[in-house]
Amino acid sequence: MSQDRSSGPGEGTTARNAVPAGRAVRVRVPATSANLGPGFDSLGLALSLYDEVVVRVRPEPGATVTVDGVGAGEVATDDSNLVVRAVRRGLEHAGVTQPGLDLHARNAIPHGRGLGSSAAAIVAGLMAARGLLEGIVDLEASTLLTLATEMEGHPDNVAPALFGGLTIAWMTAEGPAYKRLLVHRGVSPVVFVPTSTLSTKLARSLQPASVPHEDAAFNVSRSALLVAALIQSPELLLAATEDRLHQAYRASAMPETDALIRLLRQHGLAAVVSGAGPSLLVLGSDPAQRLTAADLVRRHGESDWRALMLAVDLGGATVNPHSALEAEPA
Question: What's the pLDDT score for residue 207?
Answer without folding.
Answer: 74
